[in-house]
Design goal:
By secondary structure, the chain is of the alpha+beta class. It has one domain: YaeB-like fold (2-Layer Sandwich). Helices cover about 40% and strands about 25% of the residues. It contains three helices and five strands. It has a five-stranded mixed β-sheet with strand order 1-5-4-3-2. Strand 2 and strand 3 form a beta hairpin. The longest helix is centred in the first third of the chain and has 18 residues.
C-alpha cells in the first residue's frame, strides 16, 4: 500500500497566508487572524491524509480541488494516486479564481 503523498506549498500560497493574516489582523484583530491562520495550517497539514476529501474544481483546472476555511479558499492540485499534494493558492472565496490563479 503506498504511503501518503508529500505536501508541497507554493511560495505564492505561503505569501498569501501571510498577507491574509495581516489583513485580518488589521481589520478584525490578532485573535481572529490567529484563528484563521491556524485553521488554514491545520487543513493544509491534513491534505496528504485524505487528498480527495475536498470538492473537485476540475472546471477551473484539471485535478484542482478546493478546501474552505471560513471565507478563504485553499486551491490545491492532486492527481488520484499521485505522489504530491500541491497547495497552489489561497483566495477570498468571493474572488474570481480563474483570473487570479498563476499560469500552469
Amino acid at each position: 500500500m503506498p504511503g501518503k503523498p508529500a505536501l508541497v506549498i507554493s511560495a505564492a500560497a505561503e505569501r498569501q497566508i501571510s498577507d491574509i493574516w495581516q489583513r485580518v489582523a488589521a481589520d478584525t484583530g490578532i485573535a481572529v487572524a490567529d484563528r484563521i491562520y491556524e485553521g488554514m495550517r491545520a487543513v493544509i497539514a491534513d491534505l496528504p491524509s485524505m487528498p480527495l476529501r475536498h470538492e473537485s474544481r476540475d472546471y477551473v483546472r484539471r485535478h484542482y480541488r478546493r478546501a474552505l476555511v471560513e471565507r478563504w479558499a485553499i486551491y490545491y492540485r492532486y492527481e488520484p494516486g499521485g505522489r504530491t499534494v500541491e497547495v497552489i493558492a489561497i483566495f477570498d472565496g468571493a474572488m474570481d479564481v480563474e483570473r487570479h490563479l498563476p499560469p500552469e
